[in-house]
Amino acid sequence: MVSGDASIESAISALRRGAYDFVRKPYEPDEILKRVQNALASRRLEVENRGMSKRLRRSEQWHRYLVHSSPDLIYSLDTEGRFTFVNKAVERILGFTKRELLGKHYSAIIHDEDILGVAQLFNERRTGERSSHGVELRLKRTDDNRLHSPKRFVPVELNAMGMYDNDSAGQRRFIGTYGVVRDIADRKQAEKTIAYQAYHDLLTALPNRALFQDRLAQAMTQAKRNITRLAVMFIDLDKFKFVNDSLGHVAGDKLLQALASRLRSCLREVDTLARMGGDEFVLLLPNINEASDATLIAEKILLALQEKFVIGDHELFASVSIGIVLYPDDASTSENLIKRADIAMYHAKNQGRNNYQLFNYTMDAQASGRLALVRDLRNALERNEFEVHYHPQVDIPSGRIIGLEALLRWKHPAHGLLSPSSFIHLAEETGIIGPIGEWVLRTVCGHAIEWRKAGHPLVRIAVNISPQQIQKPDFADKFLDLLGEYQIDPALIGIEITESTIMKDVEKTVPKLRKLRDMGVEISLDDFGTGYLSLSYLNKLPIHTIKVDQSFIRDIPQNAGHVSIVNAIATMARGLLLRLVIEGVETKTQLDSLVGIGCNEYQGFLFARPLSSEKTIELLRINHAGRRIEDKVAAQA
Ligand code: C2E
Ligand code: MG
Ligand code: MG
To answer: What are 86's strand-pairing partners?
Structure first.
């Protein structure tokens, strides 16, 4: 090709010559212009060509760099499906060298089960179809140990483009395939983790409620088809709150993990143990013939839990309460199966924990009765259905009333007058005890003021306090504020609190009691002898009075053991300078033996039943008159 510079030079020399020729035979100006234009055009073309090949070279370099540094495997295949190119990523992803693959058919590295799908994709590219975008498949890895990972297959996503050109007759012709293969092992792992988390409890690694329900539905279908039974067990750890409160949540979590693996060790491969949340587990036992197959497993579980758990520095014993239902005997839907297993579990709890109960229909009736009672309880305050009755505490030598215990009563519209034993635990479980407790205290203050206005000299009134009430951080302040609001001397209103309530959270409860005691509120330890209070604690507690539980009184003097216990408590109370009140005295014989032991105060049906506020005031009037009043009251009751 004539160089551009040369053509310009020749044009210029032509011009020069032109000037010469002009003398001899001058060029036409148009001719000169054309010659210059031609020269310039050819120069421009040459410069452009040079730039283009430079750009082409750069772009090629750039593409080569991209292809080889790509984390994805980039490949091309010939028309037969043999590799004509693979980039370096192939070594990292599959462990093969480029040389090992070039010339090989793609099917050599594809998992047998995935070959059809890939062949279809490549076929579509051959015919120019563009229906599917790409496929997920598994590629084989080299089986020597060039790779750190021992996995034989790697999940990938593959896409492919067809390459075409035109043949001599101008027909479009398929000349091969190229595309990208992406290693999706991490993504698959992440998907697996997410799916795992959605169906498992992270603390214990057990299936969660959702997975349990899935498995239960499957097992029910199978049981129906094969005409067999299955069992569902509701398993609840006894007194788990105590572990959490006293040893902390970390220890609580560890106990749950240890419990989960202990429970698992009692099961067959086909059984599903799941954690429903908190300390509740459910167990699915497919293929059960008889109820006894299920109770056998329940017994195995109870037995396995007789072995202690070692949690950090602590040795713990954990027991569970188990409710069992059978399908199709006890319920036909998964929802009812779980619900009824839960009901049976509650019965196991009520039977003193650490046992199992098979569901029966009376339990269900009781459970729905319970639900109705909770519903009524929620409305009872608004409907003004509560009352406070008073039970006198009597000084034995003088026969006079020296105190009253306020006792809650519920005038239920359908069931009549209910005593707290039939509803107070529900009020506590549902938290309704909070407002009820405040109502009791206000009512007692209201009565005290009313009686004082009417000119009756007052005796101290003790109010029962539930665990939920005393656990409120501001309990003592609120209590004192309320007395302030009614302008009542704190010495006039006492509280009764049980050993077990104090022991639930000794550290937090004792300062509150101390605060109340320092303000003059009398504190009685109720139901003494039924809890686990260590006697060494008794000396440290800010209390004035011990109330001996009725269970020790019921069978004295016949039960010599109980006589000795009451005797010991009386001696201890004297030594610690504590007041002693005996609860539940019903007969003269009981009273006589108590007097023999040296007890001075009691509370019981022998003297009077708990009385309405109106009757109480009458009694206080007689009391004030200084007469012995047992006979009169006994006659009234
Ligand atoms: P408690 O504090 O030990 O109350 C004494 C219970 O023994 C009362 O039962 C009383 O009626 C009963 N009792 C007293 N003397 C005799 C007797 O000689 N024979 C028999 N068989 N029983 C006797 P009640 O009123 O049914 O109360 C039961 C429990 O309910 C109480 O036991 C107390 O723990 C709780 N309670 C009562 N009122 C309230 C309240 O206002 N708030 C809270 N949180 N609990 C209350
Ligand atoms: Mg009491
Ligand atoms: Mg009591």
So the answer is: 75
Does the C-beta of 420 come closer than 6 Å to ligand 1? yes
β-strands 579-583, 320-327 pairing: unpaired
Report residue 328 as tokens: 């199709």
For 396-461, where are the alpha helices, taking DSSP H only?
A: 424-430, 433-453
Structure-token match 């009333």, residue found: 401
Q: How far apart are CA 106 and CA 508, in angstroms?
A: 73
Query: Which residue, judged by its Cα, is nearest atom 4 of ligand 1?
Result: 407
- pLDDT, tens digit (0-9, with 9 covering 90-100), for 456-466: 878 999 999 99
Find out whether 231 and 294 touch, Cβ atoms under 8 Å.
yes
> Residue 247: is it exposed, middle or buried by C-beta count within 10 angstroms (0-12/13-18/19+)?
middle
Q: CA of 627: how far to CAs of 27, 442, 601, 631, in Å?
A: 158, 31, 17, 10
Residues 6 or more apart from 138 whose CB is under 8 A from it? Answer: 110, 111, 113, 114, 153, 154, 155, 156
Q: For residue 578, which of 548, 546, 550, 600 has the smallest C-alpha distance? A: 546
pLDDT digits (tens, 9 = 90+) for 151-190: 789 999 999 999 999 888 888 899 999 999 999 999 999 9
The gap from C-alpha 275 to its chain's centroid, in whole angstroms, comes to 9
pLDDT at 506: 86
Of the candidates 236, 209, 207, the one whose C-alpha atom is nearest the C-alpha of residue 357 is: 236
289 close to 229: Cβ distance less than 8 angstroms: yes
Q: What is the DSSP letter of 492?
A: G
- Detail the DSSP E strand segments found in 191-267: 229-237
Q: How far apart, in whole angstroms, are the C-alpha atoms of residue 342 and residue 348?
A: 10
Total count of residues recorded for the chain: 637
CA 441 to chain centre: 36
Instruction: Among the bound ligands, name the one nearest to the CA of residue 524.
Output: 2
- Report the alpha-carbon distance of residue 577 to residue 486 in Å, rounded: 31
The low-confidence residues of the chain, meaning pLDDT below 50, are 1-4, 18-24, 629-637
For residue 110, the 8-state DSSP code is B
DSSP label at residue 314? E
Q: Residue 144 has what pLDDT?
A: 63
Query: Which residues crowd ion ligand 3, with CB under 5 Å?
Result: 526-527, 583
Instruction: Respond yes or no on whether the N-terminal peptide bond of residue 467 is cis (omega within 30° of 0).
Output: no
Q: Is the CB of 605 under 6 A from ligand 1?
A: yes
Where does 427-585 show beta strands of DSSP type E? 460-464, 493-498, 523-528, 545-548, 579-583
Q: Are 136 and 155 in contact (CB under 8 A)?
A: yes
CB atoms within 10 A of CB 227: 7
Q: Which of 423, 447, 502, 583 to mutate for ligand 1's pocket (most ligand atoms within 8 Å of CB)?
A: 583
Cβ atoms of 282 and 338 within 8 Å: the answer is: yes
Query: Cα–Cα distance between 360 and 331 in angstroms, integer?
Result: 10
User: Cα–Cα distance between 395 and 587 in angstroms, integer?
Assistant: 16
Q: How far is CA 575 from CA 377, 380, 537, in A?
A: 44, 45, 14
What is the model's pLDDT at position 46?
Answer: 82
> Model-level pTM greater than 0.70?
no
C-alpha distances in angstroms, 1 versus 4, 5, 42, 62?
9, 12, 10, 30
For residue 485, the SS3 value is helix
